Amino acid sequence: MNALQEFLSAREIWEVPLAASVVAGALLGALGVYVVLRRTVFVSAALTQLSTLGLVLALLAEERVHIETEHAWEQLVVAILFSVGGALVLGAFRSRRLPAEAGVGAAWVTASALVVLGASQLVHAAHDLGGMVFGNAVAVPASDLVVILAVAGICLLVHALFAKELAFASFDPETALALGMKVRLWDALLFGTIGLAIPVTARALGALPVFAFLTLPAAAALLARVRFRTAFAVAALIGVVAAGGGYVLSWLWEIPTGATMVAIAGVLMVPAAVSRSRG
Amino acid sequence: MSGALIALVGAAVGYGRRPLISGIDLAVAPGDFLAVVGPNGGGKTTLVRALLGALPLLAGQLLRPRPIRIGYVPQREHVDTIWPFTAGEVALLGRVPALGPWRRPGAADREAVRRAMARVGVDHVYGLPYGELSGGQRQRTLIARALAGEPELLVLDEPTSGMDPAAELATMDLLRDLHRDNALAIVMVSHRLEAVANYARSLAFVDKDKALFRMGALDLMLRPEALGALYGRPVAVRELEGRRLVYPTDGEDRR
């Protein structure tokens, strides 16, 4: 039996993780259009670290203070609170006294250090944390897929209903504000969806692929010179191809799943860059 | 202030708790053409943001006797050209505030955008990427976006900044035509008095470093004492072939 036949015959093992990866790839790819166009790529990196910090604190609370957080959903709620809170502070309500990248850098490096310190204090949950931080797309439970689908549905709904407000407030906040639009509210809604998507997809994919999917598919779509609305569909499609293709190839070649997904997303930028240079 | 579309009364504007300019009394009535003039960083944009309600006043009142439709044209350098919008899509954003949430732009909105783009002479770039337009075309697209909302008051922040003399003249001629043909009230920020001296009906001089705010009819504001208050040195105004020229002097050459 060759590797492909072996893969196909093990459908019950991979169908949920593959579906979770593909939905996560599409969701992050589409949200990445705003991340890239608003020049907030490193906000997503900082949010991934803040989300991980939330997980570490939840696990520490359980081990050290004996606060019950052993259920995955409780840990996820804490991670979401950290991520959405960080998204609002770094994205929507950021201080005008500091350059934006200073706040993002401070959040990223501080959260990273606290994750290392917190993880060093974990005894029983240290192994679990590895899977949560680096992802384990090979073994995603069905409950995680349901959560990812629910979050994807919420994000789709928000972005469909308020597409023009989110676009205007992001593209030209000065004019939107001058015309009476509540720019901070729309920013909060946008970054709220990004902050929500990061922790739930990071549980399935891991931090590196989440950061990559918020950047590379959108960058490829924009390099290909597609129009604004089309960019969301193209970026989502690239996310699907990279996540799905990466999952299958990593299985067939027995190589790390997350890194394979990121590599494919990176490779998919090449044709877009070539098409732009020819255009 | 009676009959004003919008007015500031005894206003102080600034950021945080620190007022940059105080004692501002400013009213814009239908058909006005007000140019807000002062040095770069002098507080002109701050004043206009306060007038639009985008910046809370530190003192005084912002009066808007009735809801009015406002069109706003930012400095074109403030509008990011990496966004993959066509010129038509950028102009369509001018319809968004009036639509409110939930509703999508329809045929009537697109028609209003077409009219606005044709009015300012950029209807031929409707489907072209905004980021690939020339500076002048981008400026006109932003003006079309403001007009697409069918405003009663058009506010422009440095619309001729960075333009060569011919493009500056063309833009100012366009604003004059819009003001004349549509009875549109215009408030325009400029750091170049000469650019507006042939078009505006009234002037406001603003310089936060001199704690200066002075407003009046064009002829009054072009008098030596008013110009001296703004520039801190003698400034002459001359007419040549029907156009006003404004230039600094050594003190001998006064109007």
Strand tally of chain B? 11
Tell me the structural class of chain A. mainly alpha
Number of domains in the coordinates of chain A?
Answer: 1
The mean pLDDT of chain B is: 90
CATH architecture of chain A: Orthogonal Bundle
Order of helices and strands of chain A: HHHHHHHHHHHHHHH
Fold topology:
The complex is a heterodimer of chains A (279) and B (255).
Chain A (H helix, E strand, L loop, with lengths): L2 H7 L1 H27 L3 H24 L7 H21 L7 H21 L5 H9 L7 H20 L1 H9 L1 H6 L4 H23 L1 H7 L2 H8 L4 H26 L3 H11 L1 H10 L1
Chain B lengths: L5 E10 L2 E11 L4 E5 L6 H8 L7 E5 L6 E4 L13 H6 L3 H4 L7 H13 L15 H14 L4 E5 L7 H18 L2 E6 L2 H4 L5 E6 L4 E6 H4 L2 H8 L3 E6 L2 E6 L7
Helix pairs in contact in B: 4-5
What does this structure look like?
The complex is a heterodimer of chains A (279) and B (255). Chain A has 279 residues and is mostly helical. Chain A has a single domain (3-278), classed as ABC transporter involved in vitamin B12 uptake, BtuC (Orthogonal Bundle), CATH 1.10.3470. Chain A has 15 helices and no strands. Chain A has helices spanning 3-9, 11-37, 41-64, 72-92, 100-120, 126-134, 142-161, 163-171, 173-178, 183-205, 207-213, 216-223, 228-253, 257-267, 269-278. In chain A, helix 3 (41-64) packs antiparallel against helix 4, helix 6 crosses helix 10 and helix 13 (228-253) crosses helix 14. Chain A is globular, with a radius of gyration of 19 Å. The N and C termini of chain A lie far apart (46 Å). The mean pLDDT of chain A is 89. By secondary structure, chain B is α/β, with parallel strands linked by helices. Chain B has 2 domains: 1-68 and 152-255, Rossmann fold; 80-151, no CATH class. Chain B is built from 9 helices and 11 strands. Chain B has helices at residues 44-51, 87-92, 96-99, 107-119, 135-148, 165-182, 193-196, 218-221, 224-231; strands spanning 6-15, 18-28, 33-37, 59-63, 70-73, 153-157, 185-190, 202-207, 212-217, 235-240, 243-248. In chain B, helix 4 packs across helix 5. The two termini of chain B are 31 Å apart. The model of chain B has no long low-confidence stretch (mean pLDDT 90). The chains are: A mainly alpha (279), B alpha/beta (255). Chains A and B meet through helix 8 and helix 9 of A and strand 5 and helix 3 of B.
